[in-house]
Amino acid sequence: AMSAASAAASGSSKKRKDNDGRAADDEAVLPSRLHGVTTGLEEGDLLVKAAATSVDTFSQITRTAKQLAEKEIEALSSEIKQLITANGGTIEPRRKDGRIRLNVGGTVMSIPVSALLHRKMKTTYLSTLLLHFTDQLPKDENNL
Length: 144
Description:
This protein is mostly helical. Helices cover 44% and strands 8% of the residues. Strands 1-2 form a two-stranded antiparallel sheet.
């Protein structure tokens, strides 16, 4: 049987995957491959062992920080989606092509959806309002 340290040193691992193909969150970080490194001197080996332990600790800390950051980002994303839908918006634009007709102070403007979806335009308040909150806009007698 191969130890975890020698498995890490040889580059092989048997990580359990979740449904997304990512390593499962409850899986421990593999030990540093430095655990299998020797110098030929007892003092050197002790230093390498201490360094390997430090690398293991660092790996665990960064893994934990990464997991916490991912969970926080997922929670924020969910909260943003809930805010959008709670205010009558849609997550995806209602339209992806054609034109939006908008009555602006009595003047009907025809705005191409492709312009609102342009990479530099789609993050603006105007695009967000017209693409995601169309039903929340006031309408005139012609439903514009």
